């Protein structure tokens, strides 16, 4: 984050140095890959409680993500209060109703059909935790002066990925929800206007009857998402 006292570059010895063999690297990345292969998005949550310490540590992990100029332009609001969750659900469903009644357009609605989404969002009530992610358009110093943040969407996106991975490693399931627009979250969560809400993540244990849409299991093959040493580069 920007220093309040100095802008001097001060290099320090690399902490927590890793020096793995090639074999250990292969084993480590394969173990992580195999663990993340078991991650699935669900809409059917159990009401089984999740300790706050688990949520807190997952968010602390998200805070370790790299960011533009190390400004860390994010804020996470963790909500377990039933009344607050009900307010968020009611406001989100109002926006979803407008979305499905024509605001989205036919192509977008058609793209969502295999996923099985709709106006009703019971997971926002049932999941024991909602985490609302905010991106900070600019920073504010203690003296109320502003400073510019850099690569805000990219930085916040990386932190969100860290968070989802951490929640999965805790044995939890989550659902990313992006009602459009979502300005209502700023007021409900009591956040300042320079923070833009970008996502709600419902977090908890999967219900015994949880399902996943078949379409969600279709992942692009590696050949479609990887290019090595492109010609003409």
TrEMBL record:
Keywords: Flavoprotein, FMN, Oxidoreductase. One of its GO terms (molecular function) is oxidoreductase activity. The keyword Aminoacyl-tRNA synthetase does not apply. Residues 37-205 form the Nitroreductase domain. Residues 1-26 are annotated as: Disordered. Residues 1-10 have a biased composition (Polar residues). Residues 16-26 have a biased composition (Basic and acidic residues). The keyword Oxidoreductase applies. InterPro entries: Nitroreductase (IPR029479), Nitroreductase-like (IPR000415), Nitroreductase/BluB (IPR050627). It holds the Pfam family Nitroreductase. This is Oxidoreductase. It comes from Primorskyibacter flagellatus.
């Amino acid at each position: 984050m920007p220093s309040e006292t100095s802008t001097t570059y001060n290099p320090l010895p690399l902490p927590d140095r890793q020096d793995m063999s090639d074999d250990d690297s292969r084993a480590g990345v394969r173990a992580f890959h195999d663990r993340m292969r078991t991650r699935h998005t669900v809409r059917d949550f159990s009401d089984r409680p999740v300790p706050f310490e688990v949520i807190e540590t997952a968010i602390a992990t998200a805070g370790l993500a790299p960011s533009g100029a190390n400004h860390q332009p994010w804020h996470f609001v963790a909500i377990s209060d039933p009344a607050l969750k009900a307010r968020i659900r009611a406001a989100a469903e109002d926006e979803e109703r407008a979305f499905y009644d024509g605001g989205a357009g036919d192509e977008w609605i058609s793209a969502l059909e295999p996923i099985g989404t709709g106006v009703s969002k019971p997971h926002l009530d049932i999941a024991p935790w909602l985490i609302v992610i905010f991106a900070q358009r600019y920073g504010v110093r203690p003296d109320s002066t502003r400073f510019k943040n850099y690569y805000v969407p990219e930085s916040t996106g990386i932190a969100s990925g860290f968070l989802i991975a951490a929640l999965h490693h805790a044995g939890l399931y989550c659902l990313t929800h992006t009602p459009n627009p979502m300005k209502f979250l700023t007021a409900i969560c009591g956040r300042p206007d320079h923070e833009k809400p970008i996502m709600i993540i419902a977090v908890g244990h999967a219900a015994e009857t949880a399902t996943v849409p078949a379409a969600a299991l279709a992942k692009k093959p590696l050949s479609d998402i990887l290019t090595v040493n492109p010609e003409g580069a």
